[in-house]
Specification:
heterodimer, A: 551 residues, mainly alpha, 3-stranded antiparallel sheet, 8 strands, B: 267 residues, 4-stranded antiparallel sheet, globular, disordered N terminus
Chain lengths: 551, 267
Amino acid sequence: MTDTTAQAPDVAGPHNWGSGATKRRVRRRYAADRRLQIYGLGAIALAVTLLGVLFTSLIFTGYVAFVTTKVDLTIYLDPSQIDPSKPADANYRKLTRDAFLGLFPDVTSKKEQRDLAKILSSGAPYIVRDYLVDHPGEIGKTVTIPVPLSDPYDQLYKGVIPSRIDALTIGARARFKKLQSRGVVRVEGDKAVVQLGAFVNPADIPGGDIAAADFQRMVDESIDSYFPGERNRAYREILATDAAEALKKRVAADPSLVGKTITVDLPLSEHYDSLARTGEAKMLNPRFASERELEWFDSLKTRGLLLSPFSWELFFNADSRFPELAGLAGALTGSFFALLVCFLLSFPVGIATAFYLEEFAPKSRMSDLIEVNINNLAAVPSVVFGLLGLAVFLGTFGLPRSAPLVGGMVLSLMTLPTIIVATRAALKAVPPSIREAAYGVGASKHQVMLHHVLPLAMPGILTGTIIGLAQALGETAPLLLIGMNAFIPSIENMGILQPATALPTQIFSWADSPERGFVSRTSAAILILLGFLIIMNAVAVFVRQKIERKW
Amino acid sequence: MDTMVGMHSVTAAVSSLPKVIARDVNVYYGEKHALKEVSIDVPDNGVMAFIGPSGCGKSTFLRCINRMNDTIPICRVTGKIEIDKNDIYDPDLDVVELRGRVGMVFQKPNPFPKSIFDNVAYGPRIHGLCKTKKELNDIVHSSLEKAGLLTEVKDRLDDPGTGLSGGQQQRLCIARAIAVNPEVILMDEPCSALDPIATAKIEELIDELKANFCIIIVTHSMQQAARVSQRTAFFHLGTLVEEGPTTEIFTNPKDKRTQDYITGRFG
């Protein structure tokens, strides 16, 4: 543009590729491109980070649930206690208990034996029973069967819960620190003492009788003076209960001290004593009744009887009150049945509806209305479908509560719009030239549909279906509302009309449970659910690639 | 118009009765009047070309003959079209049967995403034209041969039809159209998407086919119309302006509009 000065304005001279204006334009364009790239990468990075955080926290809490702690129990299958014709009827509780107690011959008192037996899971006898029923020839032999430990010991072995916890709260420790900063706490030998100033109040010594005097009051007032303004007298616990005795002894030895203010060394209570000497105050985790239990546990550990095999129980056991025995078999079966019903209902109906709307429906207000409503159905919150199921399927139709059939029906209502929308998009994507060619050769409408359009639309339809099913797998709210959250301790009687539970609702129940073992199991169940979702979506992608035809 | 019809029966002495007779055909796309009062006779065993500028209605009229316009919901056709004296717009007539008798080749080659064999075999299969596998095989081979494609593909009949070149695909579509043994073949600008060599091959093919079929070809190229057809009809803005033997239309047109179009004044 630099050499247009002498020419007419609308006749441009040769373009100067290196001019300042050009360079500026180019720079700005590159900058805009780079900005767009940065925004895109930033968005992806944010999404990946959030996902990463989710997965990391899930794996971190959940990985322990994939192993289970067991003890190798050597048990003598006493033929005198087992009837070979009815092997399941023997008293396995006794057998198992006796075998376990046999590992600790020095434990003799009834109470201690009860505590010891608590180390084993309450499901251990059933495992022994099941082993014997499967191997009836083993009666009379001595076998080694791995049986699970109860939840506290399971968690202890995995390091999820500590054997010792802090005995003092942070506030208590802070108070003690305040005392220590005044330099009055010192360690003498194997004990710590605090040197306080105490006023030997004659008013507390009625009639000069030192033995009957209220030294506790004097001690309390003494320490009160170190914590002025604190209404809550919790600091009094710093002193040992026999601190008053120490003061009494001192005054008894020297009665002339009455009425004077003296400095006296008072003993500290147990935890503060430990805190002063070692800087730490720990106490036994209240889950364990006594130190002996930890000793027994450690003994099992050192004897090499404890193992950590992969937890197949997580997948094959049904639900249980005891976390070490709880598994997902019931949930997986329930989810499977519900998804099957959902697929069988929504796949044909969805495809037929989409076909009708796309190919056969006349363009009228009615069909527009139907279309709008179907698209809106996809946006309805799933909880509403649950309410619908509750009111109509359970109420009006009277179907059994919490059955996979009802769950599947509710889920199919949710999946239907997804399948319809995906099928319509797939049908629209079939080029009209194929249809015209088919019509031109003399195919009827349904032949065109079946022989040409459907095969070409199939990849899109299948992708939409699998995605819809993957969504249905993870839906919790509607299943909760129809009660598909039953406690299923055994999967033997599960059927389409029996009460059942599903994977997401199982996660919901486990998340609510107080036992520590369920924390990691909840995370593990979430990981399993996510695993299924990833697999289903991968299958959708794979199927799409495999059967997609170029036209 | 009646005198024109009389002239037809005199000049087209070889074929006695016109294959396709159209009288007062009107086509409406919704409110738009796309084709106005078209009446024409198309003789058998020959090629008739429809020429005219874009949007003049020639493709629309062509699609009326095999009722492809039925697939367009807003399209409405009035008037009468007869093939061999059968009114094709008779409500009792089965459209599928009609399309088995009137084949169509489209502007852009559109083979089915199936194998070459299945492309050609589809029509005979759905119309039940052959009972045994051997018969089907014969029909496929003979159609491909008539379309001039057999030598090129005979050892790869199971390859996908979409893997052929443009010219080969169009010949495949022609083979597919003649496999059902139609009486009339409609061609909507069959060579417009092809290169000159492929175009020449197809024109050669049309020349061979005209002995046995009634062919109507819509074309933008006047040279093609001159090369390929015996009779030509000129359409303009939805009306049939002039119709007659090809040589006469191109050397001695009667209507000024035809004259202007042929000499390149517009189009």
